[in-house]
Amino acid sequence: MKKFNIFAISALVAVLIAGLASCSETSDDVEEFADWQNVNASYFDKTYAEAKKKADAGDASCKVLRAYNIEENVATHSYDHIVVNVLNAGTGSGCPLYTDSVKVHYSGRLLPSASYPNGKVFDQSWTGDYDLTTMMPVKFAVKGVVTGFGTALQYMHIGDRWQVIIPQQLAYGSSTTPGAAYSTLVFDVTLVAYYRANDVPLSISRVADAQSAESTGRWIYE
C-alpha cells in the first residue's frame, strides 16, 4: 500500500520527477506541459462557473465550497474555492473538524497532458481497481494536508465519495517542480471514518497528530 503523501511537497516532487521527467520533452518532441499555468487556470475557472451554475440551480451533485481559511465576509475569487462532484452520497451524520484525523481512500491526478490523456496519477492509496471490499484506507490529520483537500474533508460525511477539483492556489501553488507548478489537482476521495479527540489539542503535526489523539477519543464510522 502506498504511503499517503499529499501533505508533503517533497514526496509529490519525487513522484512527479520519476513519472514525468521533463516538462519540455517527450519521445515525440511534444511539450509535456504546454502553457501549463494558463491551461490550468482556464480549466478551473470554467469548471467553477459551470459547477456554481448547477449548484445555484439546486443540483445536489455539484458543490462549490469556499476554502476553510477564508472568512465569510471577505470577497473571494473562483480560486478561493474547490469544486465537488458527488459520486456517492454517504449517510454519516457529522463531518470531520480541522483538529480531527480521518481514514480515507484517495487518488490524485493532474490535468491531461501530452503523455497522459487522462491526467497523470501522482498519488493513490489503493492499487488495482476501486473496490471497497479489498481496499485499506489511509489515516492522517485533516490539518496536515493542502488547503483544498482539507476543505473538502470538513464537508464530507461518512460514505461520501467525491471528485474534488482544487485550484493551484489551494494546492501546491507556484512550486518549481514540472507538473506540480500551477497545477489544478483532481482527487477521488472516499471518507471512511474520522477521529474526534476529547477536546485535546492536536499540536504535534501531520501523521503524528493522528497517532497522538487515539488514546483520548474515538473513531466515528457512521
How would you portray this structure in words?
Residues 1-5, 7-27 and 199-206 have low confidence and may be disordered. The protein contains four helices and eight strands; from the N terminus they run H-H-E-E-E-E-E-H-E-E-H-E. The chain has 222 residues and is of the alpha+beta class. The longest helix has 21 residues, at 36-56. It has helices at residues 9-20, 36-56, 147-153, 206-212, and strands at residues 62-66, 81-88, 101-109, 121-124, 138-141, 161-166, 185-197, 217-220.
What is this entry, summarized?
By secondary structure, this protein is α+β, with helices and mostly antiparallel strands. Helix content is 21%, strand content 24%.
Overall pLDDT, averaged?
A: 84
Distance between the termini: 25 Å
Relative helix content? 10-25%
List low-pLDDT spans.
1-5, 7-27, 199-206
Give the DSSP E fraction (strand runs of 2 or more residues). Answer: 15-25%
Overall 3D shape: globular
Please give the structural blueprint.
Layout: H1 9-20, H2 36-56, E1 62-66, E2 81-88, E3 101-109, E4 121-124, E5 138-141, H3 147-153, E6 161-166, E7 185-197, H4 206-212, E8 217-220
